[in-house]
């Protein structure tokens, strides 16, 4: 009997580029993925949509405006996406050091 982890690994291997290192999913990674899927809402922004608005969001934060209230979908995405959150943190650090 296949576990969810086995099925996901098979799917990732199928979509993987030939020269890429093999993908191994741990139980923790699968649990994190499932939590992210469960938290996803229909009106949630994608990474691309969030990234397109990230500079505007960071400017609101640095100007001490309520960015979360003004751009709630960006805020929600940053709360759930560590990749985009990393970009946000980097932009915020750059603007705060200027």
Task: Report the average pLDDT across residues.
Answer: 81
Q: Describe the biggest sheet?
A: none
User: In which range does the helix fraction lie?
Assistant: over 70%
Contiguous low-pLDDT stretches (5 residues minimum) are none
- SSE ordering: HHHHHH
Beta content: under 5%
Gap from first CA to last CA: 56 Å
Judged by helices, strands and strand pairing, the structural class is: mainly alpha
- How many β-strand stretches? 0
Shape: elongated
Q: Report Rg.
A: 17 Å
Number of helices, where a helix is a run of at least 4 consecutive DSSP H or I residues: 6
How many domain units?
Answer: 2
Core attributes:
98 residues; mainly alpha; 2 domains; 71% helix
Structure characterization notes:
The chain is mainly α and 98 residues long. The protein folds into 2 domains: 4-39, no CATH class; 47-97, no CATH class. It contains 6 helices and no strands. It has helices at residues 4-15, 27-39, 47-62, 67-70, 72-80, 82-97. α3 (47-62) crosses α5 and α5 (72-80) packs across α6 (82-97). The longest helix has 16 residues, at 47-62. The radius of gyration is 17 Å and the shape is elongated. The mean pLDDT is 81.
């Amino acid at each position: 009997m296949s576990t969810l982890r086995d099925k996901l690994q098979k799917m990732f291997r199928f979509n993987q580029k030939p020269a890429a290192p093999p993908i191994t999913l741990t139980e923790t990674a699968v649990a994190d993925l499932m939590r992210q899927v469960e938290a996803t809402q229909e009106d949630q922004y994608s990474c691309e949509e969030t990234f397109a608005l990230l500079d505007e969001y960071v400017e609101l934060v640095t100007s001490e405006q309520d960015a979360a209230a003004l751009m709630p979908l960006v805020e929600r995405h940053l709360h759930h996406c560590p990749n985009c959150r990393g970009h946000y943190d980097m932009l915020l650090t750059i603007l705060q050091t200027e």
